[in-house]
């Protein structure tokens, strides 16, 4: 099977057939679903890629879903579903020569049926590609985002909803570029960085990405722990252990295949959406003001730092690595890259729009309930449930806690996948996947446990820490975006699927705006006073980003689009 072949000028890589009777190691579920031996072979030495390809269709023509690879070696999905025998026979009947009258009558009778069949076939294919985009979108509604949302609503009302909308739009564009890179090249972003960057640059990029992942994990696990504290009354550090342990336990759903795991993620997203939607319906914010906040830009001088922090918590660097790896769970046949990119774009857009809706619910709820409140600036993730309970009744406190648990649990689980793919791509550790998962989870759990113990009695410091972690995400973002745009814009990497000039121009412009916002926020954190230390920090930061843009290996990448 030419699972790694590239179309339109991309080099073709064939895998040798497996020995007779050879079976690819998989779960019992996969072997039963497949019903046949799986062909496998060594990958070319020029490609640093751990994702092994699997080709199989079940009896209904739907792709067989294989594990992502946290607990098993990562395996990928077959291509889009083939036509069924009924569809093939129907096409042959239409191809038979008929008299003009008969042809006209048949077209009149069968045209609606044909359109319906095409629509069903498209939905059939879209369903086969549905999953990675929704897992990616969880990072846009994690507890860090929810805290930024509630603080924006409580302190500035509906005025910053437009920042949320446009920042999410920029994030969607970057996610689509990451999906395009993984779909076309069959390598995720960390693997490209290892292949095209020298050792020093790789080490710097890996350390920065791991730092961002740890910071994100602290927000996610703490958020889930706060939800458990509201529901069960357990101490914060106990909630951290329960959230992290439950996340790792739920990942064993992968043993039953990827679809059950994706459905579990979908259930968590549904719980979160229903919780925040329920709060919105009960508190009933002014929908006209919500619409005005989304469409009319307003930015008070006091809200600039909060707006920039929203950009940092919405667009997370590790999520680009995650999405470029998740899309490889569906193997694309040579020549079907265009359709796969289109289907992934539709799926990802639907998922991101859902995240915008959830975030808008949170901003609107706290804008309606607490904007202008004397203690509005004291509301944070830990005490938001208490404020809701005192103002609108204890049932709303429970609803908020359920949504917070769903957000923390789902984002913690996707963080596990992001951590393993980043470590595997940069370091190529020769360890079993479950051991690598334990390593990546421990790197994040230990700092999170320390934070939970330290801030167990108070919330003000925890909210401040969360704000700094959002700034951290924003500062690290260029170190993921710049390599992504270099690779996605290079014809030697992407072939005919390289980003068009206009798309590259918009992408680089968005990156420049994010960097400018980062520099402004960096200055604001020092009180706006320009000091020699501040100037040195700005020079080091901009130099590091420029180094990442210039250090890429031009011999393996080709002419850089920068």
On the 0 to 100 scale, the average pLDDT is 77
Characterize the biggest β-sheet. Answer: none
Give the percentage of residues in beta strands: under 5%
Order of secondary-structure elements: HHHHHHHHHHHHHHHHHHHHHHH
Structural class: mainly alpha
Count of distinct strands: 0
Share of helix among residues? Answer: 55-70%
- This entry's quaternary arrangement is single chain
Shape: globular
Uncertain segments are 1-66, 71-84, 86-99
Distance between the termini: 36 Å
* Cα-atom radius of gyration: 25 Å
* Total of DSSP H or I helical runs spanning 4+ residues: 23
SSE diagram, text form:
Blueprint: H1 28-34, H2 85-95, H3 100-128, H4 132-137, H5 143-156, H6 161-185, H7 189-196, H8 199-232, H9 236-250, H10 258-283, H11 287-295, H12 304-314, H13 317-326, H14 337-370, H15 384-392, H16 394-427, H17 433-454, H18 460-476, H19 478-488, H20 491-494, H21 501-525, H22 532-550, H23 554-557
Describe this protein's structure.
This protein has 562 residues and is an all-alpha fold. The chain has 23 helices and no strands. The chain has helices at 28-34, 85-95, 100-128, 132-137, 143-156, 161-185, 189-196, 199-232, 236-250, 258-283, 287-295, 304-314, 317-326, 337-370, 384-392, 394-427, 433-454, 460-476, 478-488, 491-494, 501-525, 532-550, 554-557. α6 (161-185) crosses α13. The chain is globular. The two termini are 36 Å apart. Residues 1-66, 71-84 and 86-99 have low confidence and may be disordered.
Give a brief rundown of this model:
By secondary structure, the protein is mostly helical. It contains 23 helices and no strands.
């Amino acid at each position: 099977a030419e699972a790694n072949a590239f179309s339109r000028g991309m080099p073709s890589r064939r895998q040798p057939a497996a020995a007779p009777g050879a079976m690819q190691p998989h779960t019992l579920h996969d072997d039963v679903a497949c019903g046949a031996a799986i062909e496998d072979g060594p990958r070319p030495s020029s490609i640093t890629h751990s994702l092994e390809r699997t080709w199989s269709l079940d009896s209904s023509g739907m792709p067989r879903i294989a594990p992502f690879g946290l607990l098993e070696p990562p395996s990928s999905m077959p291509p889009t579903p083939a036509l069924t025998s009924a569809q093939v026979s129907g096409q042959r009947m239409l191809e038979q020569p008929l008299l003009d009258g008969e042809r006209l009558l048949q077209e009149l009778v069968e045209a609606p049926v044909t359109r319906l069949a095409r629509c069903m076939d498209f939905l059939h294919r879209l369903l086969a590609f549905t999953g990675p985009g929704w897992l990616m979108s969880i990072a846009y509604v994690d507890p860090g985002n929810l805290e930024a949302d509630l603080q924006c609503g409580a302190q500035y009302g509906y005025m910053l909803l437009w920042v949320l909308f446009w920042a999410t739009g920029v994030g969607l564009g970057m996610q689509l570029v990451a999906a395009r890179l993984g779909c076309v090249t069959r390598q995720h972003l960390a693997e490209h960085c290892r292949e095209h960057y020298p050792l020093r640059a790789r080490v710097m990029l890996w350390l920065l990405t791991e730092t961002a992942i740890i910071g994100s994990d602290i927000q996610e696990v703490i958020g889930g722990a706060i939800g458990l504290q509201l529901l069960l009354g357990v101490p914060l550090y106990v909630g951290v252990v329960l959230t992290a342990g439950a996340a790792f336990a739920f990942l064993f759903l992968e043993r039953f295949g990827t679809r059950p795991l994706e459905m579990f993620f979908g259930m968590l997203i549904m719980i979160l959406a229903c919780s925040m939607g329920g709060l919105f319906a009960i508190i009933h914010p002014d929908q006209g003001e919500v619409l005005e906040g989304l469409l009319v830009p307003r930015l008070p001088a006091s809200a600039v730092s909060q707006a920039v922090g929203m950009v940092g918590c919405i667009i997370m660097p590790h999520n680009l690595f995650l999405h470029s790896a998740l899309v490889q769970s569906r193997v694309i046949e040579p020549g079907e890259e265009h359709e796969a990119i289109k289907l992934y774009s539709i799926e990802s857009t639907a998922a991101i729009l859902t995240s915008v809706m959830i975030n808008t619910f949170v901003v609107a709820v706290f804008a309606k309930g607490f904007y202008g409140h004397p203690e509005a600036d004291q509301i944070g993730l830990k005490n938001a449930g208490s404020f809701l309970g005192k103002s609108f009744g204890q049932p709303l406190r429970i609803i908020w806690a359920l949504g917070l648990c769903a957000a923390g649990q789902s984002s913690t689980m996707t963080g596990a996948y992001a951590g393993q793919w980043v470590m595997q791509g940069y370091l190529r550790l020769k360890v079993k996947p479950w051991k690598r998962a334990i390593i990546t989870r421990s790197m994040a759990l230990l700092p999170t446990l320390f934070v939970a113990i330290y801030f167990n009695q108070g919330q003000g410091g925890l909210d401040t820490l969360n704000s700094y972690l959002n700034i951290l995400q924003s500062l690290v973002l260029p170190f993921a975006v710049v390599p992504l745009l270099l690779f996605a814009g290079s014809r030697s990497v992407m072939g005919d699927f390289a980003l068009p000039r206009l798309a590259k121009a918009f992408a680089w412009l968005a990156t420049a705006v994010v960097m400018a916002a980062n520099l402004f926020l960096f200055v604001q954190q020092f009180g706006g006073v320009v000091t020699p230390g501040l100037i040195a920090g700005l020079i080091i930061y901009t130099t590091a980003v420029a180094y990442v843009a210039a250090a890429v290996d031009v011999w393996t990448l080709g002419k850089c689009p920068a």
